[in-house]
Amino acid sequence: MHREDSENIKRGFDFTNTPILNQNNVEKFKSLTQDEPELLFEIFNSFIEDSSILVKEIELSVKTSQTEKFSKGIHTLKGLSASIGASRLFQITDYLDDINKNDNFEVAKEYLPLLIECYNELISDIKKTFLSK
Fold it and tell me: How far apart are CA 73 and CA 109, in angstroms?
Protein backbone atom coordinates (compact mmCIF):
# COMPACT_ATOMS: atom_id res chain seq x y z
CA MET A 1 0.00 0.00 0.00
CA HIS A 2 1.31 3.45 -0.88
CA ARG A 3 1.67 6.07 1.84
CA GLU A 4 -0.97 8.33 0.25
CA ASP A 5 -3.46 5.43 0.22
CA SER A 6 -2.75 4.93 3.89
CA GLU A 7 -3.37 8.61 4.62
CA ASN A 8 -6.66 8.56 2.70
CA ILE A 9 -7.87 5.60 4.71
CA LYS A 10 -7.04 7.32 8.01
CA ARG A 11 -8.66 10.62 7.08
CA GLY A 12 -11.92 8.97 6.12
CA PHE A 13 -13.03 7.85 9.57
CA ASP A 14 -13.92 9.79 12.70
CA PHE A 15 -14.86 7.46 15.52
CA THR A 16 -15.51 10.20 18.10
CA ASN A 17 -19.10 10.71 16.95
CA THR A 18 -20.02 7.16 17.89
CA PRO A 19 -21.17 6.70 21.50
CA ILE A 20 -18.94 4.64 23.75
CA LEU A 21 -21.92 2.55 24.86
CA ASN A 22 -25.15 2.17 22.91
CA GLN A 23 -27.81 3.42 25.31
CA ASN A 24 -30.49 1.18 23.76
CA ASN A 25 -28.40 -1.87 24.65
CA VAL A 26 -27.74 -0.51 28.12
CA GLU A 27 -31.47 -0.08 28.74
CA LYS A 28 -32.18 -3.58 27.41
CA PHE A 29 -29.58 -5.07 29.74
CA LYS A 30 -31.03 -3.15 32.68
CA SER A 31 -34.56 -4.21 31.79
CA LEU A 32 -33.67 -7.87 31.30
CA THR A 33 -31.72 -8.06 34.55
CA GLN A 34 -33.83 -5.82 36.77
CA ASP A 35 -34.62 -8.66 39.16
CA GLU A 36 -31.04 -9.91 39.11
CA PRO A 37 -28.58 -7.01 39.41
CA GLU A 38 -25.76 -9.48 40.07
CA LEU A 39 -26.28 -10.86 36.55
CA LEU A 40 -25.75 -7.41 35.05
CA PHE A 41 -22.60 -7.07 37.16
CA GLU A 42 -21.40 -10.48 35.95
CA ILE A 43 -22.00 -9.67 32.26
CA PHE A 44 -19.89 -6.53 32.35
CA ASN A 45 -17.28 -7.90 34.72
CA SER A 46 -16.84 -10.88 32.40
CA PHE A 47 -16.47 -8.52 29.43
CA ILE A 48 -13.71 -6.63 31.25
CA GLU A 49 -11.84 -9.82 32.12
CA ASP A 50 -12.06 -11.30 28.63
CA SER A 51 -11.41 -8.10 26.73
CA SER A 52 -8.39 -7.12 28.82
CA ILE A 53 -6.70 -10.37 27.79
CA LEU A 54 -7.56 -9.71 24.14
CA VAL A 55 -6.24 -6.15 24.22
CA LYS A 56 -2.94 -7.38 25.68
CA GLU A 57 -2.73 -10.04 22.95
CA ILE A 58 -3.45 -7.41 20.28
CA GLU A 59 -0.74 -5.12 21.68
CA LEU A 60 1.76 -7.98 21.70
CA SER A 61 0.83 -9.02 18.17
CA VAL A 62 1.51 -5.49 16.93
CA LYS A 63 4.88 -5.32 18.72
CA THR A 64 5.90 -8.68 17.26
CA SER A 65 4.23 -8.18 13.84
CA GLN A 66 2.12 -11.32 14.18
CA THR A 67 -0.65 -10.52 11.73
CA GLU A 68 -2.58 -13.75 12.33
CA LYS A 69 -2.78 -13.18 16.08
CA PHE A 70 -3.71 -9.55 15.46
CA SER A 71 -6.49 -10.60 13.13
CA LYS A 72 -7.88 -13.17 15.56
CA GLY A 73 -7.69 -10.76 18.51
CA ILE A 74 -9.34 -7.89 16.65
CA HIS A 75 -12.10 -10.12 15.30
CA THR A 76 -12.84 -11.58 18.74
CA LEU A 77 -12.81 -8.15 20.42
CA LYS A 78 -15.18 -6.91 17.71
CA GLY A 79 -17.67 -9.65 18.59
CA LEU A 80 -17.39 -9.04 22.33
CA SER A 81 -17.90 -5.32 21.80
CA ALA A 82 -21.00 -5.89 19.72
CA SER A 83 -22.47 -8.24 22.31
CA ILE A 84 -22.56 -5.56 25.02
CA GLY A 85 -23.28 -2.54 22.83
CA ALA A 86 -19.80 -1.02 22.99
CA SER A 87 -20.46 0.94 19.81
CA ARG A 88 -17.24 2.91 19.43
CA LEU A 89 -14.97 -0.04 20.20
CA PHE A 90 -17.00 -2.17 17.80
CA GLN A 91 -16.67 0.44 15.06
CA ILE A 92 -12.90 0.72 15.53
CA THR A 93 -12.37 -3.05 15.63
CA ASP A 94 -14.62 -3.53 12.61
CA TYR A 95 -12.55 -0.98 10.71
CA LEU A 96 -9.27 -2.61 11.79
CA ASP A 97 -10.62 -6.03 10.87
CA ASP A 98 -11.46 -4.77 7.36
CA ILE A 99 -8.09 -3.07 6.91
CA ASN A 100 -6.22 -6.13 8.08
CA LYS A 101 -8.22 -8.46 5.82
CA ASN A 102 -7.03 -6.30 2.93
CA ASP A 103 -3.42 -6.96 3.92
CA ASN A 104 -2.90 -3.50 5.37
CA PHE A 105 -1.41 -4.55 8.70
CA GLU A 106 0.93 -1.55 8.70
CA VAL A 107 -2.04 0.82 8.52
CA ALA A 108 -4.06 -1.21 11.02
CA LYS A 109 -1.35 -1.13 13.66
CA GLU A 110 -1.23 2.67 13.46
CA TYR A 111 -4.66 2.59 15.11
CA LEU A 112 -3.47 0.76 18.21
CA PRO A 113 -3.25 3.96 20.34
CA LEU A 114 -6.81 4.88 19.36
CA LEU A 115 -8.02 1.37 20.15
CA ILE A 116 -6.35 1.49 23.59
CA GLU A 117 -7.75 4.94 24.33
CA CYS A 118 -11.27 3.88 23.36
CA TYR A 119 -10.97 0.66 25.34
CA ASN A 120 -9.87 2.53 28.46
CA GLU A 121 -12.77 4.99 28.14
CA LEU A 122 -15.18 2.08 27.75
CA ILE A 123 -13.85 0.29 30.82
CA SER A 124 -14.10 3.50 32.83
CA ASP A 125 -17.73 3.97 31.72
CA ILE A 126 -18.61 0.36 32.49
CA LYS A 127 -17.11 0.58 35.96
CA LYS A 128 -18.94 3.83 36.74
CA THR A 129 -22.26 2.69 35.29
CA PHE A 130 -22.45 -0.99 36.17
CA LEU A 131 -19.79 -2.03 38.62
CA SER A 132 -19.78 0.69 41.27
CA LYS A 133 -21.93 0.05 44.29
Answer: 13
In this predicted model, what pLDDT tens digit does every residue of 90-100 receive, in sequence order?
999 999 999 88
Looking at the structure of the chain, the number of domains it has is 1
Q: Do the domain assignments include residue 7?
A: no
39 alpha-carbon distance from chain centroid: 22
Q: Answer whether residue 112 is part of any domain.
A: yes
Q: Which helix (H) or strand (E) holds 49?
A: helix 37-63
- pLDDT tens digit string along 23-71? 898 888 888 888 788 898 999 999 999 999 999 999 999 999 999 999 9
Q: What is the CATH number of the domain that holds 83?
A: 1.20.120.160
3-class SS at 18? coil
